[in-house]
Amino acid sequence: MADAAERRELLERFRSGPGNLERSIDGLSESEIEFRPGPGKWSIREIVIHLCDSEIVCAHRVRAILGDDEPFLVSYDQDNWAGRLNYSKRNLSQSVDLFRLLRKTTAELFRDLEEDAWDRYGNHQDKGKVSLVEVVKLYAEHCENHVAQIRKIRLQLSQQQ
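Now predict its structure.
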């Protein structure tokens, strides 16, 4: 388990996700948002929508771990979601807003947690036992990785111009 200092750093990374995401897409044109960096690769719009939908899952998982005893955490197929939920047609700004609100309300749950709450865990369908700290770390890194992916696409776009 992470000590208090490690948790503070992790929670700061978790809380900073929405701002980092917003900065990564700031100033993009519609054509840049729709650009696909390669065959079978997601556009920036699809990456952002994926982040939003995965944040819905994160919000549920955190609440399940905190509110239930050893909850079962269902996995999902991100590619199925992207296709079946029409990521390429979803509203980007609404998804960014929802991501920001979900992340903020989930982060608020951590503010007054008792020390022993950090020991709580759920049983993930594919990964087995996962702690609250592991879930928070997973989603902090998930956002960071996709923000880096968006920046890489932006670099690719700037080199084409």
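The chain has a mean pLDDT of 95.
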